[in-house]
User: Fold this.
Amino acid sequence: MPVLYLIPVPIAENALHTVPPYVQDIARRLDVFIVERAKTARHFIKSLGPEKPIQEMIFTELPEHRHSADAEKTFLETIAAGKDVGLLSEAGCPGVADPGAGIVALAHRHGVRVVPLVGPSSLLLALMASGMNGQRFAFHGYLSPKRPELARDLRRLEQLARQHDQTQLFIETPYRGQMVLDVALDTLQPDSVFGVALDLTGTGEMIRSLPVREWRKAGKVELAKAPAVFLIGKN
Assistant:
C-alpha cells in the first residue's frame, strides 16, 4: 500500500542534524516528491546521498495559494503505480504554514496512508521557548507589511491574547523583522508579553520573551535579517 510521507527539512543553514536519521533514511529511498520549490528540494535530497541519481527523480512544485493540477496528477499517478510519495515544505514541516495541506487532504480522500515524520517546526520551537501559554495558542501567518495596518493587527492580537489567555504567533520575512519589533514596542501595552524567536536552530539563534516594558528599558534591539517567529501573550 503506497504511503505519503510528510518530510520535514531544516529551518536554518547547515542544520541537517535537526532532521532525525530515520527521516533521512526514508527520504533517501524515495524518488517522487511534491515540493514548494524544486531547486531547494533537490538540494536537500542531494545532501542526503539518495539511492537514485537526482536527475532520475521527480520533483513537482506545489505553488502557494494556488490549485496545482500538476502536483495532484503526479501524486495520483504515483500511488496508482503502488509507489510512495514524499511531501516537502520549503522550510520546516509540511502542511504547517505551508501549502502542502491540499495534497494531504487528497491522500485521505483516496485512502492513502499519511505518515508525518519528526523534524523542526519553527512555530512549536518558538512556543516551547517563549514561556507563554502553550495550552491555548493561534497562528496568524503574516500580518500587514505597512506600519499603520501592522499596528492595528498587533492591537487586535493583543486583545485576543488578553481576552482568551491565548498566545498569538505570527511570522515575518527576514527583511521586515526589525520593523515588526519596532512597531510592536511602540504599540503594545507595557504589561503584554512580546517574544522574538530568530534564526531558530541556526548559528544566529536569538530567543527573547519579555513584557513590553522590559523590552523598552533594555533600549534599542537590532535584529539580524533572519527568519523570525513573533509571539504576543498575556503576563
About this structure: The beta strands are 3-7, 32-35, 58-61, 85-88, 113-116, 137-142, 167-172, 193-198, 206-211, 228-233. The chain has two domains: 3-116, 122-233.
